[in-house]
Structures are given as structure tokens and as C-alpha cells.
Design a protein that fits this description.
Shape: elongated
Structural class: alpha+beta
Number of domains: 1
Helix content: 40-55%
Order of helices and strands: HEEEEEH
Distance between the termini: 50 Å
Strand content: 15-25%
Number of strands: 5
Oligomer: single chain
Length: 84
């Protein structure tokens, strides 16, 4: 593969990450309507109820109280499961 080919691959991967982040963020923001408190730590990091950190770009989560971590496609479901 040539330099231009790799540039195209990098651009496609960037677009995919941006799309995934936008989709996951919309699911996470829907949690506010269910009574969860959301704090945007950065554009790439949301804290739910002061306990659960969600990273929508990578699909990772971290429970601050139990120090457990994981990866999930549906971060909103992880928040509902761990905080109810």
C-alpha cells in the first residue's frame, strides 16, 4: 500500500470513531431523562452519578467505587445495570 492508500485508511478509521462516539454519546445523554446525573469531564469522557466513567470513543467504562473496568458496545446499558 502506498502513502495515499494509508491516508485514506486513516481517514476512514477517524470517521468510524467519530460516528461511534456520536452514537454512543446520544445513548448516554438519553440516561439524563431516566434520572441519571451526567457530567461531561471532556468531550470523550462522561461521568454518571459521580461513580461510573464512560468513554464513548473506545466503548470503555470504569466504576470508580469498585475499580472494575470493561468494554461494552452499549455503555448506557452498563450504566443502567451497575447504577440501579
Amino acid at each position: 500500500m502506498g502513502r495515499e492508500d494509508w491516508a485514506g485508511v486513516r481517514g476512514a478509521m477517524r470517521d468510524l470513531r467519530n460516528e461511534q462516539r456520536a452514537c454512543r454519546l446520544s445513548e448516554i445523554h438519553a440516561l439524563a431523562a431516566e434520572g441519571f446525573k451526567l457530567d461531561a469531564v471532556t468531550p470523550y469522557h462522561v461521568r454518571v452519578n459521580g461513580q461510573l466513567d464512560l468513554f464513548p470513543t473506545s466503548g470503555k467504562w470504569h466504576d470508580l467505587h469498585t475499580n472494575e473496568r470493561g468494554v461494552a458496545d452499549d455503555l448506557a446499558a452498563v450504566a443502567r445495570e451497575r447504577l440501579r
